Amino acid sequence: MVMKYPIKYAVLEVKEQGGYLQGYKKVILGYIASKCYVLSSAVIYSVDGTLKTSNIVFFPYNNIKNFKNSNLESDEKDTIRFNYNMTPWPVEIVVELFDTFEEAKENAEEKNNELRKNLMFNRPVIYVAKGYEELVREFESDLEVCRRYEEFIDENTTDMIITKDEIGKCKVKN
Q1: Average per-residue pLDDT in the chain?
Q2: In this model, does residue 48 exceed pLDDT 60?
Q3: What is the spatial distance between Cα 111 and Cα 14, in angstroms, rounded to a whole number?
Q4: What is the pLDDT of residues 116-129, one digit of tens each?
Q5: Beta pairing partners, 27
Q6: pTM value?
Q7: 3: which residues sit within 8 A by CB, 6+ positions away?
Q8: C-alpha dihedral over 6, 165, 40, 171, to 10 degrees?
Q9: How do residues 49-97 score in pLDDT, each as one tens digit?
Q10: Which of 31, 86, 146, 148 has its CB 3.0 to 4.6 Å from that of 111, i.e. a possible disulfide?
């Protein structure tokens, strides 16, 4: 199926299903820059007069487990699906869209630095007993896999041409 949605870069939150120690919740491994299809954008007005955007996007690659299980070399593009109401899934909500890989990458790195800074607070108590150095080693290992996934996605989305318009951007007027 040829998708004619606008295409932008966004920051993909790379998550993996956690086990018993994580309460079976998804665990954030890191953040990467990725191309995505923009399905909708909305402006959210705050009581203080500021504007924010909320964008519903579809990432063509969004399964780190498949990537890891394929020996870090191949993965199939995800397919957008529609339920009986024609609501698309699986989708993600992102605040920011970018026109270049570099802009998205910079934002992803900022988020990874924040994740690294809060490493001790984002882990169950049993992980803290391992010690900070071990947590950092595990985090950096996960981040390296994320970076390889980012490279893989970038190489396999060259056919997706970035839409050059103001999708998802708020223009604040004084």
Answers
A1: 86
A2: yes
A3: 12
A4: 988 867 655 555 55
A5: 16
A6: 0.86
A7: 37, 80
A8: 170
A9: 999 899 999 999 998 988 888 765 556 788 888 898 888 889 999 999 9
A10: 31
- Joined together, the tokens standing for residue 137 give 């080693």
User: Reading across the β-sheet that carries 7-17, which strands appear in turn?
Assistant: 7-17, 26-45, 51-58, 92-94
The tokens describing 69, both together, are 């299980």
* Residue in this structure with the two tokens 């970076």, named with its chain if needed: 147
Q: Which residues contact 83 (CB under 8 A, 6 or more apart)?
A: 89
Task: Tell me the β-bridge partners of 56.
Answer: 40, 93
Residue 144's H or E segment, with its range, is: helix 132-156
With residues binned 3-state (H G I as helix, E B as strand, rest as coil), the percentages for the chain, rounded to 5, are: 30, 25, 40
For residue 90, say if its preceding peptide bond is cis, omega within 30 degrees of 0: yes
Strands (E) across the chain are located at 7-17, 26-45, 51-58, 81-82, 88-89, 92-94
Q: Which residues of 136-170 are buried (b: 16+ CB within 10 A; e: fewer)?
A: eeebeebbebbeebbebbbebbeebeeeeeebbee
In angstroms, rounded to a whole number, what is the distance separating the alpha carbons of residues 46 and 36? 27
98 pairs with which residues across the strands? Answer: 9
